[in-house]
Design a protein that fits this description.
Two copies of one chain form a homodimer. Chain A has two domains: 58 residues, Orthogonal Bundle (Arc Repressor Mutant, subunit A), CATH 1.10.10.10; 177 residues, Rossmann fold (3-Layer(aba) Sandwich), CATH 3.40.50.1360. In chain A, strands 6-5-4-9-12-14-15 form a seven-stranded parallel β-sheet, with helices on both faces. Chain A has ten helices and 15 strands. The radius of gyration of chain A is 20 Å and the shape is globular. In chain A, α2 packs across α3, α5 packs across α6 and α6 runs parallel beside α7. The first copy, chain A, is α/β, with parallel strands linked by helices. The N terminus of chain A is likely disordered. At the A-B interface, α1, α4, α5, α6 and α7 of A face α1, α2, β3, α7 and β6 of B. β6 of chain A pairs antiparallel with β7 of chain B. Chain B binds a DNA duplex through α3.
DNA sequence: ACTTTCTATGATCATTTATGATTAAAATGC
DNA sequence: GCATTTTAATCATAAATGATCATAGAAAGT
């Protein structure tokens, strides 16, 4: 133990790429220069990172920088490595806080969403005694491993490219359901409502919200002000949003006027 | 327990690994360096730990560290995995033959059973174009990976210790369903009927049999003459049994008198 | 009790991978 | 057209990895 290396604050490549993705998602466009300064590596390294990320289809390379890919191609298959990079820390933080809202012997809906997945993971880890309902195959499998969890799967057709179920019989099932809490993941949050990209999915989320005594929307910061066509449900009093970064003041004011609570989950630092 | 170990600072490997998993779940990523400092073991040991954890599928290894795996591919309970190994060759043979009964654009029910799982695997492998219905989470996840498969999940409560769904809304759903073929796994085959160990499961199988134009029962040889309390369905004409070893002459005669076809699947030799 | 195995660990080293510097080519702006 | 910036390619260096080996401690057999 003679030598002493100062590099305790070293960042591994995967982490750096994850930060790059987040920065691009945050700003829409970013230059190679700025990235280099922000994450403190050389230009060639940034270029290599961007090339690697672009290959997985999340971003689009352009001269001098990179942009978010506007057309989220239907057939792009992000390899596990890169898929895991997208806002992993934020999702974990949101999920952790969400799970802390649960008590034993409650009934809970887990919507199909990667953020909600984290909440489910925490719930299993905390050995909570729950009656859980989900329309997501991965979450179902996860919850199945919790010995103290009574699991119901809504049923329906599988949405291509994801693990979520929609349509019958799940839709009717949800309409006759009453639970204590619903964790709902969403694609876009406007001043007054939650929206999603397809009608069927929006319907599912609407019924989930209606079935629950308390609705908790889990969404990372990128969802505020995003665009999506189909209205899932309007915000109502007693709704809560758990997120990692606050929305714009305009959205915030509007939501708070509606009685919606916005809670920030503390994200682990690098 | 005469001796008492004083080394409280020493933790056993399992503890250390679970601590590593915890840390990764907390932060999303972690470097090998940081882990080494945190848990006070050498870098090679950390690498070995990470490799071992990664093999179990919880985390994903990357250069310099590891990340949480969001897309939990096929991570099933170890006890299930060992169960799946029982009579593996026989099940594979039965599944192979069963899958060869399928044609493109058919609708098929896949019952919850490890033998049927093999049939589903073959169907996916053959890139068949199917509308598939299942009440099993593992089969659902498997079929979800088939790009040409339109998947419906019946929904219901999870049976503890397995991955099959029973009860509502799946039961009602199945009653309103009509499909070309149903692959049904069963616990016991008598001279005249198929039986199972629980009433709910028997009901599900009955509805599945009723929904199908053609019923194909998949069962390894041990199921003939086995005992189970609840009658799922009587054999009818045009039912088929695919198995690996023939039943006793008595059972065979009785089944053939009912018009049931018994097909032997050729088991691969070592 | 003693010895033998076996596993876990740490150290060493060759190999692979990531990074930063350099430079020529390409793209952009004027 | 030219000047400037950005890029891709190459190379040398540094870091991380996997493999192998030796040792220490635990578990098991005698």
């Amino acid at each position: 133990m003679t030598t002493f290396t100062q590099k305790s604050s070293h960042i591994i490549p995967v982490q750096r790429r994850s930060r790059i993705i987040e920065l691009i998602r945050l700003k829409g466009f970013i230059s190679v220069q700025e990235l280099s300064e922000t994450v403190c590596v050389s230009l060639p390294t940034i270029r290599r990172d961007l090339a690697s990320i672009a290959k997985s289809g999340i971003i689009q390379r352009s001269h001098g920088g990179a942009t978010l890919k506007t057309n989220q191609g239907t057939t792009f298959e992000p390899d596990y490595q890169t898929a895991a990079l997208i806002a992993q820390r934020e999702k974990a933080a949101i999920g952790r806080l969400a799970a802390s809202r649960l008590n034993n012997n409650q009934s809970v809906i887990f919507d199909s969403s990667s953020t909600v997945y984290e909440a489910a993971r925490q719930a299993v880890e905390n050995n909570l005694v729950l009656t859980a309902v989900t329309n997501d195959l991965r979450i179902a499998e996860l919850l199945a491993s919790g010995p103290s969890i009574n699991l119901l799967v809504s049923g329906g057709s599988l949405r291509q490219g994801s693990y979520s179920l929609f349509g019958e019989p799940g839709t009717s099932f949800l309409q006759n359901l009453h639970v204590d809490i619903a964790f709902i993941g969403i694609h876009a949050i406007t001043k007054t409502a939650c929206c999603d990209t397809s009608l069927e999915v929006a319907y599912i989320k609407r019924y989930m919200a209606m079935a629950a005594e308390k609705v908790i929307v889990l969404a990372d910061g990128s969802k505020f002000g995003a665009v999506a066509f189909f209205n899932a449900f309007e915000f109502e009093k007693s709704f809560e949003i758990i997120t990692d970064s606050p929305p714009s003041p305009a959205i915030r004011r509007s939501l708070e006027k509606k009685g919606v609570t916005i809670t920030l989950a503390p994200v682990e630092k690098y």
